[in-house]
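Still learning folds. Look over my entry:

…
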Amino acid sequence: VETTLEHLDGDRVRLTVAVAEDEFDVAVEAAFRKIAREVRLPGFRPGKAPRKILEARLGKTTGRQEALHDALPNYYSRALVEHDVDAIDSPEIEITGGQETGSLTFDAVVPVRPRATVAGHGSLRIEIPAPEATDEDVQEQLDALRRQHATLESVERPADDGDQVTIDIDGRLDDEPVEGLTTSGYLYEVGAGAVVPEIDENLRGASAGDVLEFEAAHPEEDGTLAFRITVSEVQARVLPEPDDDFAAQASEFDTFAELEADIRERITVLRRSQAGMMARDRAAQAVADLVDMDIPPALVEVEVDNRINDMAMRMRSQGFDLPTYLEATGGDLESIRDELREGAEVSARVDLGLRAVAEAEGLEADGEPLEKYLTLLAAQVGGEVEDLRTALTESGRMLEIRADLCKQAALDWVFERAEIVDEEGNPVNRSLLESPEPEIMVPGDGGPIPIADDEVGETGSSAAKPVDEEEE
């Protein structure tokens, strides 16, 4: 198979592929064996009719057309791999020779990932929450703990948000009691926002002994609910004093100072564990904001496909699949795609931005980064590094791996040079920002990597399939 590459305008390339007659005849022979299994000819068992008989009965072009359908995707994929073409959509195929006799030639015009440019990527300012507990954080947690241990005390005043009221409630639809809305002696927190907002609106300012009658639209179906609520008691929450007695009651500590210090430490540990990842995410977003170009819809759809595949993999790991989920929830795949599209466009912009940084700074994935990745991946999937390298290269997945490693290097480069501040504009101590270890994932569709004499598969992307290829 001989291939050439021509760059076209509009982020497209033309692959010209020529397959020698003897090699294409191997595909034609396989096509006739396939046809022999599918047709029924008098005097021959299924699959046993000779090629010459089939050619005489069905015509020589029948086998060639079947071979084109079956073998052309593989020839196209091999051309993609040979020239490291980063296709983002299905190609337009034009067969230019060999449909009836001789060697096969065809052209494939395919959109490729555009190349963005970025400016100012070496002097970004990144803002993250302070990676340590503030006094407000600690006070919020202490107040929440005090609310958990609060007591109720009857009060002789109108109810307000946060008060507990004991009520008899009678909710009716078309003069019929509604299950769950008719009960006596029910303890309700004013402002809880349960059922309908009109309940809270009427309870605010109500006192013990008040009878409230009002209507509200049914929240789940057509119709109007009629409510009658009798308030029998109003109780206020009484928070415990923030002292040593409270600390001993609510925690394992003997003093309030110890409890406060523990809460501060726990919040700080959590904040620091999140800070590194958040800072890197915001660095990536800052790079994306530098990409001043429209994102090709095809590239967005590739990102949507990736997210759908990730979702399906997570579901399979939990024991169910995407079709089952859609059936159970009454959803459809297109609606999910629509929901994912906005985030996918952001991811596509991040992708182009980091690739642009890598190109601008001469960052490469070959050498130690690639060898380390392959070694870890080989240990994960079970296999030899060289066998893995060969399989990944022949399947086209090595291009994706190199791109991911380059983007990781680009993000590291940007992150190391960025100014990182908290929300008050104060510099953040970088020693508190732990860099997460990148997860070693099987590239492409997450499927098994052929590491033996397995047949070379597709590139792991729908972009590798001709537009007229049908799913088997």
